[in-house]
Amino acid sequence: MANLKELKGRIGSVKSTQKITKAKKMVAAAKLRKAQAAAEAARPYAERLEGVVASLASKVGGSDSAPKLLAGTGRSDTHLLVVLNSDRGLAGAFNSNIVKAARDKANELQAQGKKVLFYLVGRKGRPVIARLFAGQIIEQYETTGIREIGFEQAHDVSAKVMELYATGAFDVAHLFYSKFRSALLQEATGQQLIPVPAPAEAPASSGAAVEYEPGEEEILADLLPRNITIQIFKGLLENAASEQGASMTAMDNATRNAGDLINKLTIVYNRTRQAAITTELIEIIAGAEAL
C-alpha cells in the first residue's frame, strides 16, 4: 500500500493537471466561438460557388473546349489525397478520424489498382500516413508558426495542387477535412476536388433563357481555380472549428476524469491515514500495558 507522502504527492500532481486541462478547456471554448463563426460564414459562399460551377459544367458537358479542371485528363490512374490536419494534439480523435477517412479511401483505390499520392497539410497526420504509405507523400505544407489559418494558406495549397495537376502528376484529387457539426460532433469528410464532379442532379431550370458573356468555357476557366481555392479554404475553416470543439470536449473529459481520480485518491489517503493512526494508538496502548 502506498504511504501517506506518496498519496499526498499524487493528489497534488493530479490537481495540477486538472488546473491545466480546465484552463485549456476555457481557451478552446473562447477560440471555438470565433472559429465556428468563420466556418459558418464561409459555407453559403462555398456552396453557392459550387452550385454555379455545377450549373455551368452541366451546360458545357463533354465539350472539347471544356477546361481541363472540368474535363479531366481522360484517365483515373493516379489519385492525389489532400489531407488537412492540425499541428497540435490534445483534441481527442480529431486528427485520427481525418487520417482514417483518407486511409480508407487510399486502401479502396489501391485495391482497384490505382496509384495513390498524398499532399499533407499540418503535421499531426504525417507519422501514420508515412508509416502506412511509405514513399507516397509528394508534398507537405507547413503550418507550424501560423497562428490563424487564412485564405493565404488555402491559396498556397490550391496553387500547388493545380501546378501538380498541370504537370500530369495525378488525374484525380480528393480533399479530406473535418466538418464542424457541434462542439461534441465533428465529421471526417472527403470530397472530390479535381476534376470538378458532375452534379448528382441536374440543376433546376427557371425556364428563362440565359446567355453568358463571355461563354461558359471562359467563365469556367476563371471560376474553376477559384472554386478549388474556396473549397480548400472552407475545409481549413471547418478544421479550425472542429479542432477547437474536439479540444474543448477532450479537456472537459480530462478535467472530469481528474476530479474523479482526486476523489478516489482522497478516499484512499483518508483510509490509509486512519489506519496509520489506529496502528499508532494500538502500539501506544501495548507499550503502556507492558509498563
Supply the number of helical segments. 6
Helical content (DSSP H or I, runs of 4+): 55-70%
- Order of strands, main sheet, comes to 3-2-1-4-5
Distance between the termini: 32 Å
User: Unreliable runs, pLDDT <50, ≥5 residues?
Assistant: none
Quaternary organization: single chain
Biggest beta sheet summary: 5 strands, mixed
Q: What structural class do helix, strand and pairing data support?
A: alpha/beta
Query: Which descriptor suits the 3D outline?
Result: elongated
Estimate the strand proportion: 5-15%
Q: Please give the number of β-strands.
A: 5
Question: What are the salient characteristics of this protein?
Answer:
291 residues, alpha/beta, 5-stranded mixed beta sheet, 6 helices, 61% helix
Structure description:
The longest helix has 75 residues, at 216-290. The chain has helices spanning 4-60, 68-71, 94-111, 126-132, 151-166, 216-290, and strands at 78-84, 115-121, 137-141, 172-180, 186-194. It has 291 residues and is of the alpha/beta class. Strand 1, helix 3 (94-111) and strand 2 form a beta-alpha-beta unit. It has a 5-stranded mixed sheet with strand order 3-2-1-4-5, with helices on both faces. It is elongated. It contains 6 helices and 5 strands.
List strands and helices in order, with pairings.
Elements: H1 4-60, H2 68-71, E1 78-84, H3 94-111, E2 115-121, H4 126-132, E3 137-141, H5 151-166, E4 172-180, E5 186-194, H6 216-290
Parallel strand pairs: 1-2, 1-4, 2-3
Antiparallel strand pairs: 4-5
Helix pairs in contact: 1-6, 5-6
